[in-house]
Amino acid sequence: MTEYTHISVLAEEVVNLLITEKKGTYVDATLGMGGHTARLLNALPAEGTVLGIDWDPEMAGVAARNLAPFGARVKIAQGNFANIDEIVAREGIRSLSGALFDLGISSLHFDKPSRGFSLKHDGPLDMRINPDNPLTAYTIINQWPFEQIEHLIRVCGERHSGRIARAVLAARRVKPLETTAELAALIERVAPAHGEKIHPATKTFLALRVAVNYEFDNLTRGIQKILPLLKPGARLGIITFHSLEDRIVKETFRIMAKMGGWELVTRKPVKPSDEETASNKRARSAKLRVIEKL
């Protein structure tokens, strides 16, 4: 059986900022391999529990094995945090002492070529977190019209969106684009590098992943659904990895605090230390924002 490793970002900061009730029930709405959940459980007494949720059934299975030593203190549910109210109710939980959304993609997804997320490993144009999702990156690239493809990647910050979309349509008239390597090579040919140390296809791949997994819609719905479940004094922490999702969280939290009933715990986002980014390059863009229910 293959085992995977993943370093949870801002783990110490999550524990310090999220826990307000030692004997409470917390939810890790993006369980992944269970790293944040394990840190929370280790920081809580025996009465403290965590419900871990993941949309990917494979990931939920990996987490179940990793968290087995915690026994009944952890429950694992497979589902999308956009439906977190239904999941929590199904588990018989009435209120929560805190909740965490870590919006990063797990190392398993990037490091496993068959999942189709990575620029480094050739694989099918898939990018689905949940394999039951009917929409894939292949569908977008090979079936969507020019206007939709161009808009999608432009919204995610790609300034050469028109050039890339035209190249995609020209290529697929000859044959379908089927792999991540094909798409990355095509973009590299038609769009220059961004002047940074990132591949010119990075923003297009991000846009495809966001669209395939309905990431922005799910984030907005997830926040709306979790708020009534939090008891007074409970905190919601959200870790983002790019400016678009961070903007959603920042603006949502700002409005909540302005309307009353909520207080910003982090006026500015908490970022990883130099030591953490040196040991885990994937943590470099992480930002943690926390809000508390009054």
Describe this structure as you would to a colleague:
The mean pLDDT is 95. Helix content is 43%, strand content 15%. α1 packs across α2 and α7 packs antiparallel against α8. The chain has 13 helices and seven strands. The chain has two domains: 177 residues, 3-Layer(aba) Sandwich (Rossmann fold), CATH 3.40.50; 79 residues, Putative methyltransferase TM0872, insert domain (DNA polymerase, domain 1, Orthogonal Bundle). The chain is an alpha/beta fold.
Salient structural properties:
294 residues; seven-stranded mixed β-sheet; 43% helix; alpha/beta; globular; 13 helices; 15% strand; DNA polymerase, domain 1; Rossmann fold
As a percent range, the share of strand residues is: 5-15%
- Record the strand order, biggest sheet: 3-2-1-4-5-7-6
According to DSSP, the number of beta strands is 7
Q: Which segments are poorly predicted (pLDDT under 50) over 5 or more consecutive residues?
A: none
Mean pLDDT: 95
Helix content percent band: 40-55%
Report the CATH C-level class of the largest domain.
Alpha Beta
Q: Please name the CATH topology of the largest domain.
A: Rossmann fold
By secondary-structure content and strand pairing, the structural class works out as alpha/beta
* Count of individual domains: 2
CATH architecture annotation of the largest domain: 3-Layer(aba) Sandwich
User: What general form does the structure show?
Assistant: globular
What is the H/E string? HEHEHEHEHHHHHHHEHEHE
Summarize the biggest pleated sheet: 7 strands, mixed
Give the N-to-C terminal Cα separation.
46 Å
Number of helical stretches of at least 4 residues = 13
